[in-house]
Amino acid sequence: MTDIARSNLAKLHKDSDRFVVIHGDACTFKDYDTSNYIYMYNPLDIDGMKCVVENLKQSLKRKPRNLYIIYQNPRFWELFTKDGLFDRVVVADMSMVLWHKA
Predict the structure, then answer these.
(1) Is 0.85 topped by the overall pTM?
(2) Residues 72 and 94: beta-carbon distance below 8 Å
(3) Longest CA span, the chain
(4) 76 CB contacts (<8 Å, ≥6 apart)?
(5) CA proximity to 71, closest of 57, 54, 56, 90
(6) Beta carbons of 99 and 60 less than 8 angstroms apart
(7) Of 24, 59, 76, 88, which is the most exposed, with the fewest CB atoms less than 10 Å away?
(8) pLDDT tens-digit readout, 2-19
(9) pLDDT of 16-65, one tens digit each?
(10) Distances from the Cα of 48 to the Cαs of 10, 24, 29, 76, 79, in angstroms?
(11) Coil, strand or helix at 100
């Protein structure tokens, strides 16, 4: 899956080196501090998404900033919005954009 994502980025963007495709354990990945945009396509079950949300919260505490989540097929979007950390900005078809304002 990551090879396909990298190939698609290379086809679509001349400056694809500005993007990072990551394959790993979502619960142990914590290197969000340099990210302002995160794209996900229904990546995990609810427990995995809880880990991601918690890791994003910690990242935003360490480094306050605007952060956008582009979430396709958002099965667990309420995990992002339930405590007011993120607001839903756009909802269209099977996609959603969530936003955290610093």
Answers:
(1) no
(2) yes
(3) 38
(4) 46, 49
(5) 90
(6) no
(7) 24
(8) 888 778 878 876 676 777
(9) 677 788 888 888 999 999 999 998 887 789 999 999 999 999 999 999 99
(10) 28, 12, 11, 10, 11
(11) strand
